[in-house]
Amino acid sequence: MNRISKSFFPQWLTKDQGDYGTVISTRIRLARNFQDLCFPQAAGPKEQEKALQRIEAFTRQNVQLRLKLQRLQDQDETQRGLLFERGLISMASVQEPDKIALACTPGQNISLLINEEDHLRIQVMQEGEGLTTALETAQDLDDSLGSKLSLACHRQFGFLTACPTNVGTGLRASVMLHLPALALTRGIVQMLKAVLHIGLAVRGFYGEETELRSVFFQISNHMTLGRTEEEIIKHLAGVVRQVVEREEEARRILLKEKRQLLEDKVGRALGILTGCRMLGLEEALDLLSAVRLGMETGVIERIKKPVLNEMLLLVQPAHLQAFAGKSMKAEEQMAWRAELIRKRLKLGKKS
Amino acid sequence: MNRISKSFFPQWLTKDQGDYGTVISTRIRLARNFQDLCFPQAAGPKEQEKALQRIEAFTRQNVQLRLKLQRLQDQDETQRGLLFERGLISMASVQEPDKIALACTPGQNISLLINEEDHLRIQVMQEGEGLTTALETAQDLDDSLGSKLSLACHRQFGFLTACPTNVGTGLRASVMLHLPALALTRGIVQMLKAVLHIGLAVRGFYGEETELRSVFFQISNHMTLGRTEEEIIKHLAGVVRQVVEREEEARRILLKEKRQLLEDKVGRALGILTGCRMLGLEEALDLLSAVRLGMETGVIERIKKPVLNEMLLLVQPAHLQAFAGKSMKAEEQMAWRAELIRKRLKLGKKS
Questions:
Q1: Where among A250, A271, A292 does a domain terminate?
Q2: ipTM of the predicted structure?
Q3: Which domain holds residue A283?
């Protein structure tokens, strides 16, 4: 149980450099479709297979990209669950994997998702705030694809997509933020309202379907039309910078005026994580958030950053089950989750 | 902060022998009044002073009893608070100490309370279930007092007391029980109803005024008339034995069928107690109860018994303030309570 191969985790999550920071990760997605095929929802199996084979051929012709293609129906539900929990496929694809495929780099930083909502989605994940570099990576791959395959692109509207909300750039740029101090000082609601007001979207830890109960938030662009990719990124990055400043200000205030409250919250979280024997997912995320806040504000000894990052994934159902090597009911998952965190927190202490 | 003189605590609380057990302590009280003086509520200062001087003379004439008399008005509010929290005086006497005095043995096992509700109350505290021996101790002292002083006693009714509910034997026998497993398995309500139904009283941790929110309960006799002291004790002891059996049965069931739930509860409690930086009284008692349950059921390493017993007192406001050597507001008390428990839990680990 103690030894997990580093390659089990996506590469962007396990970097041991830099600070923890308020921004956990950045995600760039470009939606693309083939000019001569129906959109996946309308396409029959033959057309879907065609789309799939074109990307398969592309990956074979571009081995330097190290994209390994896997059809989702060849994987079991837990393996697909892993991909969902890493933000690479949707929950719908976990349930109905037919004709859907994912081509990934070994570290899962770069991937192509085939036959989900669109024929093709270019996805780039990156640790911390990396909107500009992630966009560049995605654009390079888009250029390669565009030079070899005929993509549906309208002279006036730009790239055409299955859902009209993606037409134009096909870009969804999102940033996962950890905002515990704003949540503690109750500045969070006002801040989220402001973000929504200027046309950005806010989601919970698990994307579209999840509530905003936690202190982890994804902020992303809504608009894909009428702006260039660079403008969208610039706008989002500016907002993220402001949110981060607010969070940092809230942390300074906490440290200055409510240090005891902060130390209490962090100490309790660490105490429960090391002491409990059953742990639900939501509680786990809340407690890990408090520990993270404790380390970032220096009120507790630092734990190795990758260990804490990895735990955000490991506590989730599919990761837990993949790790345990068996399918588990909710109660057994709670026991495993508790044990896993306890052991890894011990491991994670900086020596 | 780490060193507290053992003599700070009442002797009955710090014995390091025997098991933890479900019964924490036993208390015997005999209410007595002088034949020729008005009851304290009706008496003027002169009569109250007379009552006081008679007991003072008695303690001087019986030095072998080692009763040291102190007038409550000579003590500060924190010192009186200590006596309240140890069950030796009422909250009313903390607020209005005039003419009230307490004569105690050095270990506070035996005491005489003067001019509270009655002229005299003989009080005996003992660790664990000790109804018979505590009654014997109280009766010996009662005999000594009765042989030298004229006590109000009616041929038919027995001893006369300020409140009619104490007439007869003047005896209140009570036992402090710790019933966490019954509380966890929800058998507690039914059990308490049954105890009330057979004519016994149930109170919370702090006596008459407190609610039954905790898992610490005092069970005592209601009836003082028409039965001998021995009959009252025998009845109470029988009920206590049954309650203890129910609690032990509930613990066996917990261990057998819900060990994980038990380990989770205990582990979380220990985690919070060692991690928190602010702790309220009620939460402290709940968490200490869980730790105690954990040790008694063997799911965690044992902590020295006196350390755990002492903490039940130390977490209370007057004890905290006496210990800190200063008066503190609620928030500061919470911080001290957390620190004190953390340090003493470290100390208390059996080597």
A1: A250
A2: 0.83
A3: 258-344
